[in-house]
Amino acid sequence: MEHHPMEHDPEERGSTPLIRLEDVAKTYRMGDVEVHALRGVTLSIERGEFTAVMGASGSGKSTLMNILGCLDRPTRGRYLLEGKEVSRFSADRLAEVRNRTVGFVFQNFNLLSRTSALENVELPLLYAGVPTAERHRRAIEALARVGLGDRADHHPNQMSGGQQQRVAIARALVNQPQVILADEPTGNLDSRTSTEVMALFQELGRAGITVVLVTHEPDISEYAARIVVTRDGRILSDQRRTPKRAERSPWEPVAVGEVAP
Amino acid sequence: MSWLQTLRVALRALARNKMRSFLTTLGMVIGVCAVIAMVAIGDGAKARVEQAFASMGSNMLIVLPGTTTAGGAMGGFGSQPTLTWDDLKAIQTEVPAVRWAAPALRANAQVLSEDQNWTTSVSGTTPDYFRIRSWALGQGSSIGESDVDGGTKVAVLGQTVVDKLFGPGANPVGQVIRVKNVPFNVVGVLTKKGQSPMGQDYDDGIFIPVSTFQQKIQGGLKNYLAGPMIVSATSAGTTDRAQRQIEALLRDRHRLQPGSDDDFSIRNLSELAAAQQEGTRTLTTLLAAIAAVSLLVGGIGIMNIMLVSVTERTREIGVRMAVGAKAGDIRLQFLVEALSLAVAGGFIGIALGMGLAWRLAASFGWPVLFRPDVIVVAVAFSGVIGVGFGLYPAHKASQLDPIQALRFE
């Protein structure tokens, strides 16, 4: 695939990108010091694209993820998600966007302890106001999709790291989001389970879900179709290439019909 | 998120730290328990005082004769007979706020039946005495006006005297008793009246016509009353007026100069009752203050634990916000947790308080009075405390920055 850093503009090709950042900057004040975490980033991501964001710590990749995930608002510039200028949204509307459009996967899983896998997955539906019966059904479905349909009543401390991360992915998926943001999702996993998680992400991409992955591990980024490298709050490079295919998972996703109630 | 869901989430969070939740509610439990027990006990004590004073007599005043002064030593009220029969008559007829007036001369004497004896109080009085004391006759007849005029040797007995001289349940009407060797015909028995507020047994006494009393039991100056008189005002509202009118009448009749002391004294029993109730009220106020402090401490305890909980669960709050919880959802969740703690404490406190009041009332022999309004107020108040002290921690939780919260270790 051809490589057009900095001038990648899909609107010229006549389609609205899922994600569009226009000259986005973020400045924090830490005491008297101004920290320029992002110094003007312009980036578009298409529907179904699997993008890895790479960069050294302090390069601005975490701030970029926070803005993409609507956890934070840019100081300057515009952020359009599904064509809506979310950078102007109120905190409550941002919460709604996070609830309906975005799914998060974290390095440390961030599951609620002493709470079953099912209830963890149900959490976004709870805030979306989904009725109990449908909530259960959809949470079971999401768990089945990550191959954990039979572990619904397990608590996080009864699960391996890979299983916990799959529960977290099920939680990210349960509201049928447009984009999944994964912040170092394999950072706490061994290489075998890392590959499993990457295979899952590739599968989501094929299903039309956009995945944005932050990682500092080059071998993980190889599974992505596009690699954005940040440095000093700017995009250093933006390349598309044929991704390495993740090895087939040792667990088979269970079809919904087969899930025990 | 619906209210029911919020409540479920809150209760599960509390259930995760059962011991802590229990200890947190303890402050509320003690506070509410104190309020409930205090009100029930206070009401019981008040009812008992009212009952006791009602049994002494309705709207009653006691007029005591004056004092003697011998070489500067004051003799106390009643030591000098200053009240005359004419005074009594004048009070009866000339004071508009007075309904009845009766002498209440008393002596202790041994009373004999055929085979028993008993030392008791012997009162010389007139028929009005029983009206003033609202004391009904159980058996036989009372002393009549003709008995007083004629100085007949008849007696009306209190229940305790009947029990001692004739045995419980006996009917002594028609029998003869002897007081100071004088035979008296028993004409009636009074109903049981119980104890005075000071524990004195009203039923331990016999009553004879005042004329007979003066002739046979305790002599004295012919024209003077050798004891107090009791007076009943026309209604509860007129006791003060009756007191002032009697005072003016007696000062006039005794020709006392303005500025000189009264040579008599008037005791107003409704004042005494009010003073007793004032005492009860002071105690109740004190207990209420303690209860209020306890509830305040309980509320602070809840706030403290909620603040700890918010800090502990910062990551959880971050996760909830990341998956779509709004600030309002988080605030409501922590508010409902605080409210649940407070209201649970309130309900346990009500149960314990009722139990405590029951036990205390049983051991003091008081009536137990549970007022539903107090229970409603206690629950409402614990709710207010829960919301009041839960608001700050809940607000603090809702204002967390999701990015910071997710990074919190």
The number of domains of chain B: 2
- Low-pLDDT segments of chain A: 1-14, 254-261
**What share of residues are in beta strands of chain B?**
15-25%
Q: Total helix count of chain A?
A: 7
Structural class of chain A: alpha/beta
Number of helices of chain B: 13
State the strand order across the main sheet of chain A.
Answer: 6-7-8-3-9-10
Order of helices and strands of chain B: HHEEEHEEEHEHEHEEEHEHEHHHHH
Molecular shape of chain A: globular
Q: Please provide the count of β strands of chain A.
A: 10
Helix content of chain B: 55-70%
Mean pLDDT of chain A, to the nearest integer, reads: 88
Task: Count every beta strand of chain B, where a strand is a DSSP E run of 2 or more residues.
Answer: 13
The percentage of residues in β strands of chain A lies in 15-25%
Q: What's the shape of chain B? A: elongated
Task: Give the CA-CA distance, first to last residue of chain A.
Answer: 46 Å
Please bin the fraction of helical residues of chain A.
25-40%
Order of helices and strands of chain A: EEEHEEHEHHHEHEHEE
Task: Please explain how this structure is put together.
Chain A has 261 residues and is of the alpha/beta class. Helices cover 30% and strands 25% of the residues of chain A. Chain A has helices at residues 61-68, 91-100, 117-128, 132-145, 161-173, 191-206, 218-221; strands spanning 19-30, 33-45, 50-54, 76-81, 84-85, 102-105, 179-183, 210-214, 226-231, 234-240. In chain A, helix 3 crosses helix 4 (132-145) and helix 3 (117-128) runs parallel beside helix 5. Chain B has 2 domains: 3-52 and 275-407, no CATH class; 57-269, no CATH class. Chain B contains 13 helices and 13 strands. Chain B has helices at 3-16, 18-56, 85-94, 128-132, 145-150, 159-166, 210-217, 239-253, 269-312, 314-322, 327-364, 372-398, 402-407; strands at residues 60-65, 69-70, 73-74, 98-103, 105-112, 117-125, 137-140, 154-157, 176-179, 182-190, 205-209, 229-233, 264-268. The radius of gyration of chain B is 34 Å and the shape is elongated. The mean pLDDT of chain B is 86. The A-B interface holds A 66, 69, 71-72, 91-92, 95-96, 98-100, 104, 106, 110-112, 114-115, 123-124, 126-129, 171, 175 and B 1-2, 5, 9, 12, 16, 315-316, 318-329, 402-403, 406.
